[in-house]
Amino acid sequence: QVQLVESGGGLVQAGGSLRLSCAASGATFSINAMGWYRQALGKQRELGASITRGGVTNYADFVKGRFTISRDKAKNTVYLQMNSLKPEDTAVYYCNAKTWGTSPLNYWGQGTQVTVSS
Question: What mean pLDDT, rounded, does the chain reach?
Fold first, then answer.
């Protein structure tokens, strides 16, 4: 089992910045990749950014150039630095951990609210 605890959400004005953190605990050795998803009200959950155990990153088009995903291996923590925030970035942001294997398991954090005012 993997437990994920997010922090760092809040209210920010358009153009501002926030940094989200996700601390993993438990069977962290089983994690192959971690990522940040978001879900706006009435919309489906969508992937924003991910990073593999090897450090390979992937970004959705809507965050490229504005968000940066990074990690601290020693702390089993993944970060999402969000710059140039827009009102349309308003959503609940969820941390995800995906395990190794042909049938990977997905673990989710509790979510953290990000609200960007215009």
Answer: 96
